[in-house]
Write a structure and sequence with these properties.
InterPro entries: Ion_channel_UNC-93, MFS_trans_sf, UNC-93_regulatory. The protein has about 475 residues and is mainly α. It contains 16 helices and no strands.
Length: about 475
Amino acid sequence: MSEQNDSEPTMDPPMSKRQILKNLIILSSSFLFLFTAFQSSQNLQSSLNKAEGLGTVTLSTVYAASVLSGLLLPPLIIHHLGCKWSLVLSMPCYILYMAANFYPVWGTMLPASVLLGVGAAPLWAAKCTYLTQIGTWYAKLTNTDRDDAINRFFGVFFMMFQTSQIWGNLVSSAVFSLRKNNTTVDETVIINCGAKYCPTEDYNNTNLDRPDLDKIYTVCGVYLASAVIGCLTVVFLLDQIALDKNKERDRKPGRHGGDSVRMLWEIVKHWKDSRYQKLLIPLTVYSGIEQAFFAGDFTKSFVSCTIGIWNVGYVMIAYGVTNASCSLLFGRLVHYVGHVPFFVLALIVHGGTQITLLIWKPDPEMTSIFYILACLWGTGDAVIQTQINAFYGYLFTDKPETAFASYRIFESAGFIMSFGYSSFLCTDIKIYVCLAFLVVGMAQYAVVEISHRRSDVKTARRKM
C-alpha cells in the first residue's frame, strides 16, 4: 500500500484565499474558546478533585472513551455530516463535562467523562481533516508546496489553540489567589514535593487544600460560558466543506453506509498496511503521555505541592504563551529547515527537562525555576503537536479521516496510561515512563523520515 498519495485533488478549490483564511481563523477561535474551558479544567483536576483520584481517573476515562469512539465514529460521522456538523455534534459533549464540574462526584463526572470522550475523537478528526483540506486548497490557489501550506495552517491553529492556556489559567489563578490566609508549609513537607511525591502518601500539605466552594463555582461558570461560545462560533460562522467527490466515487458502495464494522475495518486496515503508522505509534502515544504528565503531575507534584494551587494557573500561562509562540514560529520555519531539526529540538528540550525534574529539589523560594521549566516544556510540546499533526497530514493525504482518527486513538492511549496510573505511581516513575516513550518514539520517527526520503528519491528517478 502506498504511504502517500502524491496527486493533488482533481476538484477545483471551492473557496477563495480570503474564505480559506477566514475559516482557518474561525476554526482556531472556536477551539480556543472550547479548550480555554477544558484544558484549564484538566490542569486543575488532579489538585481540585484529588479525593479517591476522582480527577485523574475521570480524565483517564475521557481518553479511554475517546479511543473506543475513534475506532468507530470519526470516518462515519464526517462522511455523513461533513466536518462542520461533526464539530457541532461533538462540542456539546465538552459543555456537559464543564457543567458536571459544578457537582464533581463519581455519579456526575464519570458519565460526563464518557460522553466527552465519545465526542472527542470525531471533534479532532474533523478538525484535522478540515485543516488538511483547506490547506491543500490554499496551496493549489497560491501555487505553493502542499506540505508547507498544511504546516502553516497547523502552526496558526496551534498558536491560537495554545493561548487557551493563558486565558483559562488566568481566570483560575486570579480567583484562587484571593485566599483567606497565607499560611506557610513546613520544609519537612516541601521536601516530599517534586519527583519524590507519591499520591498514595498523606503529607498533610496545606498547599494542596481545596479552594472555597464559591471560588470553584466562579471558575466553573466562566469555563462553561467559554465552551458554549466555542460551539456557537462553529454553528454560525464556519463554512461547511465538501469531500473530494472524485475520491468518494472511487470508494465501494456502502463503504460509509452506517456499517460501523466497516469503519473499524478501515482503521484496522490502515494500521495493518501502513508501515509508517506502526513506526509512529510510540511517538504518537508520547504526545498524550507528555501532555497528561504536565497537566496532571507537574501541576500537582511540583507546583501545587511546593507553591500552592493558586500558582498553577500562572505557571501554566507561561507554558501557554511559549507553546503558542513556538507553534506559530515552527509552523513557518519548517518550510526552510524541514521537520527533522524540530524533532531533534523536542528530543533535547523535553529529554533535558525530564532529567532536570528527576534530580531537582523544588524550592518555594525559587519560583522562577517553575516558570522556566514550564516554558521549556511548552517549547517541546509545540514541536510535538504541530509537527506530528502536519507529518500525519503529509504522509497520509489519501485518507486523512482514517489517519487522524488513528492519531487520536494512539494519543488518547497515552493520556489513558498517564492519567490512569497518576493516582498510584510516584512521580519519578512517571518521568522514567515519559523518557522511555520519548527516546523510542524519536528513534522510530527517524526511521520513517529516512525511509520516506529514500522512497521520494526512487520515485523521482522513475519519473526521469
